[in-house]
Amino acid sequence: MNDALSTVLLAVFAGAIRVSTPFLFVSLGECLTEKSGRINLGLEGILVFGAMTGYAISYHSGSPWIGVLAAGVAGSLFGAFHGWVCKLPRVNDVAIGIAMMLFGTGLAFFFGKPYIQPTAPRLPALELGFWSDVPQVREALKINPLFFAGLAVAIVLWWAFRNTRWGLIVRMTGDSSATARAMGYSVDWVRFLATTVGGFLAGVGGAFLSLYYPGSWTEGLSSGQGLMAVALVIFARWNPLACFAAAVLFGGAGAIGPALQSVGISQGYHFFNAAPYILTLLIMILSISPKRSLRGAPAELSLMK
Amino acid sequence: MTETTQSSGLAAPSAIGEWIGGMRRSAEFIVIPLFALFVSASLFSLFLLALGKSPQTFFELLWRGGFGTEFSWQNTLVRTAPLILTALCVAIPARLGLVIIGGEGALVLSGFTAAVVALPLLSWAPPFVVMPVMLLTAAITGALWIGAVGALRHYRGINETIASLLMFYIAVSILNFFVEGVLRDPSDPNKPSTAPIGPANMVGEIPGLHVHWGLAFGVVIAIVLGIVMSRTTFGFAARVTGGNVRAARAQGLPVGTLMVSATMIAGACAGVAGYFEVAAILGKANGSLIAGYGFTGILVSFLARHNPIAIAPVAVLFGGLAAAGGLIQRRMGLPDATVQVLQGLIFVVLLVSETLYGRFRLFDPEARG
After folding, report:
1. Residues 6+ away with beta carbon under 8 Å from A227
2. What are the beta bridge partners of residue B286?
3. Which letter, b or e, does each residue of A45-76 get, where b requires 16 or more Cβ atoms within 10 Å of its Cβ?
4. Quick check: ipTM above 0.85?
5. Whether the bond into A214 is cis, omega within 30 of 0
6. CB contact under 8 A, B156 and A290
7. Largest Cα–Cα distance of chain A, in whole Å?
8. Strand, helix or coil at A126?
9. Which listed residue, A82, A300, B313, B354, has the most CB atoms within 10 A of its CB?
10. Which secondary structure element, helix H or strand E, spans residue B81, and what is its range?
11. Phi, psi at B101, each rounded to 5°
């Protein structure tokens, strides 16, 4: 019994780190975009398209890291398009996001057909469990470098929002476009850049899905992670460090089902599959109040109006 | 006496002028979406050319597979029925300014509950009992599912777009949990499904059309909702709320009741779509319910500018596109996602074309010349 429990806990720990990495990247991308005052629901589409691009390029080039880069570039192109289109008058950023979600997913399935069968080189893991003799511990401590890269991005963003000129400009555009304009900054340009960089991060998150965990390209690869990341940013109150914590929490929730299955408990598997979505909804219900505005919320965000 | 004749003499031409002005204004809502469709078709042709495929063959096959023969029309109209209903699930809340994209979830869950509620009735109840019970169950399930999204939005301030999509994934998990678990029909070796509802309880065809009654239901519901949204106080209050929530509150409109009832109507529409998928097509509930009608319905509603009456013809167009998908896939050697790419492209171009409204003097009755 005790043995099974420790197996499950280790599996949840390892799963939390594995599952959280794409959440982390997408939520950081969304956090940056939303801080500038725009919402990009198309990150779900970018995630899927990034997963496909990363896998395809890794297969052709033989290097998974080139795949990750290509996924990021593809994601930033989608982000740039979103950023450009939304500056036109009367164009709604939420609706464009939904359209980009369907378009990006469609394109990914279209071009991804030939890559479902072949095996592309995957991303290597760092063996941080070398000091232990227990195989489960060694297995649990195989951590992908992208996880640490995500952590680093979170810290840099958090620091930059507070302490740099650029961070101040992004926050100012998000809180009051009139002020930004009065200070002589182009609101459209700042938002365009923020959405583009946000798209890059989401693309990298997608590459993690196909190149590390689950580690292959299939059409059912992403199931709403991109959208849950949007909810996660609200929960994290637009704080990149809190995004990190929230992503790990979500990863843990997503890892419970597979972890229980690994010790032979498969009852209610589909309900554990639903756990992250239910958790997201509950968190939104508990953390949002219609009575007061949220601390840290960019005032220009259409999501909040 | 002279005064009245004078005023009526003045009123007549201004009424005609107003009517022409109105026509010019509504022409804008037809011309710009058509232009968007044309641009999307051109862009998609370039896409096909870049891949070394012939756009001409594509559009010929699209025509033949969707509208060319009696059989393809039948195929198109069978897909039109759920598209009308799922588009209404987007259109009605959109009038209040709510963007609901989880109609697929309501469709899936309602189809499932309709199939399940029939199970205990099958052995003893006649079809005229089973069928309305199934339909009602489906409509109520959908109404509660999407209505919950509206209630969360109003009472807790939760973004309805995200919540409704999250609930789609939850609906799919619920379906899979039961269909692959306790409610799985052991006699079905193929796909995990619930027990069939039996041929007697299936919905028949509209005489002379070879299309099930769901199409008639969809068209009638669309017309009724079109009248409700444009000619009743409910529709007016909904539009005021959609235009400006604060103004609506200041006028004392019951914004919360409006939001919840509009989302419940919307969910009921998607629920009816789920019922017909089960009772007219599948005969049981299984994973085939997740066919993407809910997502195509979003596009249909946006293209129809959330106007219930315009939704029916637009749904025929996309029903045809879906019906031709298989033919295009086989004949041109394109992946099955081709239709999805075209739909996504149309959606993006359509939303970008929003920026064109009000830019042309042709459509502006105030401008002279």
Report:
1. A41, A43, A44, A101, B162, B165, B166
2. B193
3. bbbbbbbbbbbbbbbeeeebbebbbbbbbbbb
4. yes
5. yes
6. yes
7. 66
8. strand
9. A82
10. helix B70-95
11. -120, 15
CA distances from B8 to A28, B13, B138 (A): 66, 9, 53
How many residues in total does chain A contain? 305
Check if A165 contacts B (Cβ < 8 Å). Answer: no
Judged by a CB distance cut-off of 8 A, whether residue B360 touches chain A is no
Contacts of B93 in chain A (CB under 8 A): none
CA distance B114 to B35: 41
Query: pLDDT, tens digit, for every residue of A132-147?
Result: 888 878 888 889 999 9
pLDDT band at A252 (very low <50, low <70, confident <90, very high): confident
Cα distances (Å, whole numbers) of residue B173 to A115, B86, B105, B168, B170: 27, 20, 10, 9, 5
Measured from the Cβ of residue B200, the count of other Cβ atoms closer than 10 Å reads 10
Q: Cα-Cα-Cα-Cα dihedral of A6, A9, A12, A14, to 10°?
A: -60
Distances (CA, A) of B278 to B132, B281, B309: 13, 6, 25
Cβ–Cβ below 8 Å for A92 and B351: yes
- CA–CA–CA angle B346, B352, B353 (5° rounding): 85
Q: Across the interface, do A273 and B101 touch by the CB < 8 Å criterion?
A: no
Positive or negative: CA dihedral B306, B310, B315, B320: negative
- Cβ contact (<8 Å) for A103 and B344? yes
Find out whether A49 and A74 touch, Cβ atoms under 8 Å.
yes
Subunit contact A110:B335, Cβ cutoff 8 A: yes
- Cross-chain CB nearest to A274 (options B173, B355, B358): B173
Residues 6+ apart with CB under 8 A from B208: none
CA-to-CA distance for A171 and A301, rounded, in angstroms?
11
- Any idea which of A25-34, A89-98, A271-280 has the lowest mean pLDDT? A271-280
Which of B205-209, B236-240, B364-368 is least confident?
B364-368
| Residues 6+ away with beta carbon under 8 Å from B83 | B293, B296, B297, B300, B315, B318, B319, B322
Which among B159, B302, B347 is the nearest to A103, CB-wise?
B347
Domain ranges of chain A: 2-304
B335: left (phi over 0), alpha (psi -120 to 50) or beta: beta
Closest alpha carbon to A228 in A37, A17, A36, A47 = A47
